[in-house]
Amino acid sequence: MEIASKYQEIIREVIKNVSAEFTAEHVNGEVLKQLEKSWEHKLLQSGALSVNSGLKTAPIIPHRGDACSKSIDEDDNKLTTGTSELQEVGHAAPNPKDETGTKRKRETDKPAVPDLGQDEVISTDSEDDNLETEPVTSNLVLSQFEKVGRTKNKWKCAFRDGVMLLNGTEYVFGKATAEFLW
Amino acid sequence: MSLELYRRSSLGMALTDALDELVISGVLSPTIAMKVLSEFDKSVCRSLRASKVKASVKGQLHTYRFCGNVWTFIVENAIVNIADVDVQSKEVRVQLLKVVACDSKLGDVSGSV
């Protein structure tokens, strides 16, 4: 499945699943809509979904947060509303991460990867890398290992359920194998 | 309890940023923001589990580390092959690649899948 539609699905699902929580906590319904919109917007801004990878086939559907627990399909007729903004943003420069003072300091103290004209790069390093001198890269695979083995200088690994950010574009996989030479 | 690893994906970062803004502007409590994130953890794990895409990675290992049940590999000159069902497979080359992998058993224990 296209990553754009897959991500769309996750966004919808999360928003749907927290809507009861929001109601219970007496959070204004507008806030949930705002969250969804801002989430989608930031995702597009990140440029991780490459422009030609299904933005047209999987436009963001502006469904209403409160009602979405009922049915998402009902909103199909609103497709067009979201499309124009989507394409606009989709063509914007990739990776303008805005500084929102994330609590986790993922993006601080890093020698930026050569990336002209941008203050920040999607940093991919865990907190503890600050202590080490390890090459910094924004190419990142997040996954789960099933097997990691080594024979002499050959490493073989089996991974599953992964998200990869490669050259600024994101990919997902269900299974992966890896062979490394040390 | 479910893996928080995927919060570092573009999708997770976008959500974290969006939540941060709402918390900072005072319209959302940190508690409910954390709940959204844990809901995200579950959804993303489920979604990835359903993925039919297969990938392979090859390259020169620069660093390896196993710490806290997490493997970290830094791979040089990596060639990543991505094969989706009925889509032509795609090859991506990157000079440097960082692989972070949690124990898949932890994902199972979580019961989130």
UniProtKB/TrEMBL annotation, chain A:
Q: Can you tell me which residues the record assigns to a coiled coil?
A: none
Annotated spans, Disordered:
62-134
Entry-linked CDD domains: TFIIA_alpha_beta_like (cd07976)
- Please indicate which superkingdom the organism of origin belongs to: Eukaryota
Q: Which SMART domains match?
A: TFIIA (SM01371)
Q: Per its UniProt record, what SUPFAM superfamilies does this chain match?
A: Transcription factor IIA (TFIIA), alpha-helical domain (SSF47396), Transcription factor IIA (TFIIA), beta-barrel domain (SSF50784)
Give the principal location in a single coarse category: nucleus
Q: Name one GO biological process term.
A: transcription initiation at RNA polymerase II promoter
A single Gene Ontology CC annotation of this entry is: transcription factor TFIIA complex
Instruction: Enumerate the InterPro entries for this protein.
Output: TFIIA_asu/bsu (IPR004855), TFIIA_b-brl (IPR009088)
User: A Pfam family in this protein?
Assistant: TFIIA
**Skewed-composition ranges (Basic and acidic residues):** 96-112
* Annotated localization: Nucleus
What is stated as this protein's family in its record? Belongs to the TFIIA subunit 1 family.
Query: What protein does this entry describe?
Result: Transcription factor IIa large subunit 3, TFIIA3, putative
TrEMBL record, chain B:
Please, which domain of life does this record's source organism belong to? Eukaryota
* InterPro entries, sorted: TFIIA_a-hlx, TFIIA_b-brl, TFIIA_gsu, TFIIA_gsu_C, TFIIA_gsu_N
Domain (Transcription initiation factor IIA gamma subunit C-terminal) ranges:
58-104
Gene Ontology CC entries for this record: transcription factor TFIIA complex
Q: Which GO terms describe its molecular function?
A: translation initiation factor activity
Predominant localisation class: nucleus
Q: Where is the Transcription initiation factor IIA gamma subunit N-terminal domain?
A: 3-48
* BP terms from Gene Ontology: transcription initiation at RNA polymerase II promoter
Entry keyword set: Initiation factor, Nucleus, Protein biosynthesis, Transcription, Transcription regulation
Describe its function.
TFIIA is a component of the transcription machinery of RNA polymerase II and plays an important role in transcriptional activation.
Family according to the record: Belongs to the TFIIA subunit 2 family.
Report the protein name in the record.
Transcription initiation factor IIA subunit 2
